[in-house]
Each structure stands twice: as C-alpha cells, then as structure tokens.
Write a structure and sequence with these properties.
The complex is a heterodimer of chains A (about 300) and B (about 270).
Chain A: H1 3-36, H2 42-46, H3 59-90, H4 95-108, H5 112-126, H6 133-157, H7 161-169, H8 174-203, H9 206-209, H10 242-252, H11 258-292
Chain B: E1 12-13, E2 23-34, E3 37-43, E4 46-48, E5 52-57, H1 63-70, E6 79-86, E7 89-90, H2 98-104, E8 105-108, H3 119-129, H4 135-148, H5 152-155, H6 168-180, E9 186-190, H7 198-211, E10 216-220, H8 224-230, E11 233-238, E12 241-247, H9 248-253, H10 258-264
Parallel strand pairs in B: 1-12, 5-10, 5-11, 8-9, 9-10
Antiparallel strand pairs in B: 2-3, 2-4, 2-6, 6-7, 11-12
Helix pairs in contact in B: 3-4, 3-6, 4-6, 6-7
Classes of the chains: A mainly alpha (about 300), B alpha/beta (about 270).
The complex binds adenosine-5'-triphosphate (ATP) and magnesium ion (MG).
GO molecular function, one term (chain B): ATP binding
Pfam family, one (chain B): ABC_tran
GO cellular component, one term (chain B): membrane
Chain lengths: ~300, ~270
C-alpha cells in the first residue's frame, strides 16, 4: 500500500468510528428525550413526588439538585482556584509538588461509588452529619475538586509567560500579575471548566446515595430560614436529587406511573446537563471575545 | 565557529570619567550563571545618561542574559554576582525592592507582549496599580506616552478596542508606550524590532531617537545597520564576554579587536 492509500484508509476508519459515536449518542439522548419530554409539564416540575399513587412530580428533587450543586461549587471553587494558582504559578519543581499532582490525578480517577462510601463512613457516620445535603456537598466536592483544580491549573498554564514577564517588568508583584493579568486571561477556560464540572456534578448519583440520602423530606418553599428543618435552604436535611430519584424509581419504585416519572425525570436531567454544556461553550467564547477583543 | 580563534580576555572596554559625564547605570564585575552554565563573565560597563547604547554579538553570546540581569528579570532563573550601580544604589543587592526598582528601569521584549486588554488599559493598568486613579491624569498619561511612542495618531480613535487587534509593529510601540507611562529612567530593549517589518522597524527607531531626550536606552540588536543608525555607544559580546566597548562610530569603522572587526564586517567564524 502506498502512503496515500494508507492515509485514506486511516481517515475513513476514523470517520466511521466518529460517526458511530455520534449515532450512539444521538440514539441515547433522542430516546430519553422522546420518551420523557411528553411527560414534562408545569405540574410535573412543581409538585412533590408520590410514593404510592400516580401523578407525582419532581419539585423537591429539582430544587435539591440545584441547591446541592450551588453548595458544592461554593466549597470546591475557592479551594480549586487556590490550589490551581499554587500549582501553576508558585509550586517549586520538586518531588513534593509531583506527589501533590499525582494525588490529584488519583483522586480524579476514584470511582464515585468509592467517594460516596467514603463520605458515608466519614461524614455521615463518623462526624454524625447524617444523610444530609452538607454531607452530599462534601462528597461531591471530593468528586469535583481534582478535575476543577487541574482545569484551573491548565487554564493558567496556557497563558503565555510573556504576559507574566510583561507584568513583572512594569514593577508589579507576582501576586498582582497573577490576579490582574493571568487570571483574567485564563478566565474563559476556568469558567468553561466550572460549568462542565457542574454538569457532571448535577448528574451524579452514586456519590450521593449514601451521603445526601434517598429520601426527599418535605420542603416548605415559604420558609427561607436555613436553620428551620423544613426550609429549602436547610443543609442538614436528607435530600434526594434527580439522578438519585431515577435510580430509586427504577430499583424500587412502586407508584403506578413509575416508568413515566422515570422517563420524565431523565429527560429533565438530560436537558439541564445539555444546557450546562452549551452555555459552557457560549460563555467561554463570549468571555474570550470580551477579553481579547473590544474591552470597553 | 572556532571557539579558540579569539582571545576572550583580550578586551578593549572604554571607561568614562564620571566627573565629566553622567552615568545612568554602571555594572561592576557582573557574572551570570544558569546552574553550572557560566553564561556571562565579568562585565564592567558604564552606560551614559540620555544616550542609546547597543549590545551586539552572535546568538548565544549572552546579550539577553546581561540585559535581563540589569532589572533583575533573571531573579529565580539565574544567579547574578557583582554590582549594578544605579544612583549610588547597588540594585543587585538583596536589600533592594525589585518592584520599585523596575519602575525606574523599564523593559521592552523581543516579542510584542501587550496585555489582552484595551489599548488604553494596556497603558493605564500598571499606572493605576501604582496609585494614580485620577481619570484626567490617566488620560493625559495615555496621550503623552502614545505620542512619545509615535503611536497616538494611529490609535487615538480606538483607545477602547483590544490591543491584540493591532499590527505587530503597533503592538511593539504600544509596549514601549506602556513602559514609558511608568516614567522610567532607563529603558532596556531586547531586540525590539526583530519581529517587525522594515517600515515598523524604522518607526520604532524613530521612536527611540525621540525617547533619547528623556530616557537612557540600552538595546540588544542583531541588526548592524540599526546599531549604527541609532546608537551612540556599542558593546560587542562574544561567548559571554564583552570584547569591545566604544563609541558606535569607532566600533563600526576602526574596531580595535579582531573579533569585533570580523563580526561587524561579516567575516565572523
Ligand atoms: N533561561 C535560561 N536557562 C538556562 N540557560 C539559558 C537561559 N537563557 C539563556 N541561557 C544560556 O545563556 C547563554 C546566553 O544566552 P542569551 O540568551 O543571553 O544569548 P543572546 O546573546 O541573547 O542570544 P540571542 O541573540 O539568540 O538572543 C546561552 O548559552 C543560553 O543557552
Ligand atoms: Mg537574546
């Protein structure tokens, strides 16, 4: 075979594989949407779930998913930003830094079930947090932190050293250069990473089953005092999320319309994750343009 | 290149009488090491105030190494021994506040490196960090620095747009404007025109001639014509040594050392 034929053959193989991936994805997403979307209604989104009769909704699960996501990001973003800045800008090149980097990589490849069980043993049982939003948020932080940290580090690393020199040569301290020059330039990458991570966190079930729990306690949406047990903001109540809800219905759901509820919930979950992914691209591009083009 | 061809210790370094001429910067026995690599040897050079001094020499001869040591950009990268005298201060000592010092000794790099901010912000950014917040004052600084860098006419109507949309030559002049907005005493330039086309190069050179009235300039260049066009003094670097330092006219017409002669006449190596 001559190089041209080989090249053509390789190219076609890649095209076929890529096409297969797209078809499988489109099939999966399409199936979930076709089955689930007809079941989505205002009623479905805004009423509590039912255990024994049909007609239940997912309002608590929907709220819990978002609340858990916000808490997780509130905890994991500052830590990963700090860690990412340290690794990219300040960490000396030695074995200690390498170990740190390796630990982060290992942590990021832990199966989420393991993260969940670890969270269960340490926070739920040992620290007596019980099945609670906060225990879930901490578990999700363990799940989210490594990827977010690597993402911040990579985004900062991708900023040219010429920019650092430019700042330093103007008499700025390293810290000011990082804050005012490097981070703004890396922001599009950082934001994209956060939003993509948010999608992962939003769809996560295994890490939550034994930490945030599998029951949706009654929420009183008129009570916003976080210390009241019925308040939506209360973080010590057990909180079933969308993903956990789907898992639970499919393993032990006994309501008559279990299949429909499961399909509807899956569709909502997929739609939210899709929105996250699309907005990550949109935001990333927009920020990139804002910081490189007209900065009025 | 035959390393042993020239005697590296056979040098001709011009000395100024500090009583007659005002020196902006004086290095004494400067040595630079990158780890085990001794990259620059024993440089004792004086730089006269309000003059342009060119540093020439082959690639790898240590010009950038020397230049970057002058405002301590080599901190954390290389070990620099010796003294650098600036206004009766040894700025190579550890007691010096390097951030303060760099406001007096600015630098322009080989590759234009504007911030990905607007043209205006590129100039005001470091000035603001320095505590000047008054809008009118900042506008004045933007205008005067851009004028001095010969860029004002080209960009005065688009100060709010991104600096990255400028051409390479304009970006480089913006970097010069950004450096002089800090009102430094001395400007260090590392091949500021090497990435530019001939017309932009001429513009940058005109800019330098203009800047000379207010600043002392030390410039690294590979371009002999440029060195002879713009500079008052020239130092010839070879393998980490300064072989010859004299008036530019002398270096290019009557060099005292064979290495210098070979280099400027293109018979090097
Ligand atoms: N950051 C660095 N780390 C290690 N060695 C370096 C570094 N920068 C330069 N050197 C070494 O120092 C010596 C002088 O390099 P330098 O960059 O000063 O030369 P130069 O005269 O500026 O060359 P050019 O004209 O190509 O810019 C070279 O041997 C080079 O390998
Ligand atoms: Mg150089």
């Amino acid at each position: 075979m001559n190089p041209k034929t080989i090249n053509k053959f390789a190219l076609n193989t890649i095209k076929v594989i890529a096409g297969l991936v797209v078809i499988i994805l489109a099939f999966l997403i399409g199936r979930i949407l076709i089955q689930g979307v007809p079941h989505i209604s205002w009623h479905f989104l805004t009423s509590p779930s039912q255990e024994f009769v049909s007609g239940g909704g997912i309002s608590y699960q929907l709220f819990n998913s978002f609340y858990l996501l916000v808490l997780t990001l509130l905890i994991s973003f500052p830590i990963s930003l700090g860690a990412g800045i340290f690794l990219s800008e300040y960490a000396p090149k030695n074995w200690l830094t390498e170990i740190l980097r390796m630990s982060i990589e290992i942590l990021s490849s832990l199966p989420s079930v393991v993260v969940g069980l670890f969270g269960f043993l340490l926070f739920v049982v040992q620290f007596k947090l019980g099945f609670s939003i906060i225990a879930g948020a901490i578990a999700l932080t363990f799940f989210n932190l490594p990827l977010l940290t690597s993402n911040v580090e990579q985004a900062l690393n991708s900023v040219s050293d010429l920019q650092r020199e430019a700042g330093m040569a103007l008499g700025l301290s390293k810290w000011r250069t990082v804050i005012k020059v490097i981070i703004p330039e890396a922001l599009p990458g950082i934001v994209t990473g956060i939003v993509l991570g948010a999608g992962r966190v939003f769809g996560e079930a295994a890490a939550l089953i034994y930490t945030a729990g599998q029951s949706a306690s009654t929420i009183d949406f008129t009570n916003w005092n976080p210390f009241n047990a019925a308040s939506p903001l209360n973080w010590s109540r057990p909180a079933e999320t969308l993903a956990v809800h789907i898992w639970k219905i499919n393993s032990e759901g006994i309501m008559p319309d279990a299949a429909a509820v499961s399909a509807g919930t899956s569709a909502v979950l997929i739609i939210v994750v899709l929105i996250f992914n699309l907005s990550a691209r949109y935001l990333g591009n927009k920020l990139y343009r804002k910081f490189t083009a007209a900065g009025k | 290149m035959d390393v042993g061809k020239y005697d590296l210790n056979d040098t001709a370094i011009m000395q100024f009488d500090p009583k007659e001429k005002e020196m902006a910067l004086t290095t004494k026995n400067l040595q630079v090491y990158y780890g085990d690599n001794h990259a620059f040897y024993d440089g004792s050079l004086q730089f006269e105030r309000y003059k342009i001094t060119a540093l020439i020499g082959a690639s790898g001869s240590g010009k950038s190494t020397f230049l970057r040591s002058l405002n301590r950009m080599n901190d954390g990268i290389a070990k620099v021994d010796g003294n650098i005298w600036y206004r009766s201060l040894d700025i190579n000592s550890s007691a010096i506040n390097v951030y303060e010092m760099r406001k007096h000794i600015g630098m322009v790099f080989q590759r234009p490196n504007p911030f990905s901010k607007s043209i205006r912000e590129n100039i005001t950014f470091a000035v603001k960090e320095n505590g000047i917040k008054d809008k009118k004052k900042l506008d004045e600084i933007v205008e005067s620095s851009l004028k001095r860098a010969a860029l004002w006419e080209e960009v005065k109507d688009q100060l709010g747009s991104s600096a990255l949309a400028l051409s390479g030559g304009q970006q480089q002049r913006l970097c010069i404007a950004r450096a002089i907005a800090m009102q430094p005493d001395i400007l260090l330039m590392d091949e500021p025109a090497s990435a530019l086309d001939p017309i932009s190069t001429l513009k940058v050179e005109e800019t330098m001639m203009e800047l000379k009235k207010h600043y002392t300039i030390i410039i690294v260049t590979h371009n002999m014509q440029q060195a002879s066009r713009v500079s008052d003094y020239t130092a010839f670097f070879h393998l980490g040594h300064v072989i010859e330092y004299d008036k530019t006219k002398n270096i290019f017409t009557f060099p005292q050392k064979k290495a210098t002669d070979d280099y400027v006449s293109g018979n090097f190596g």
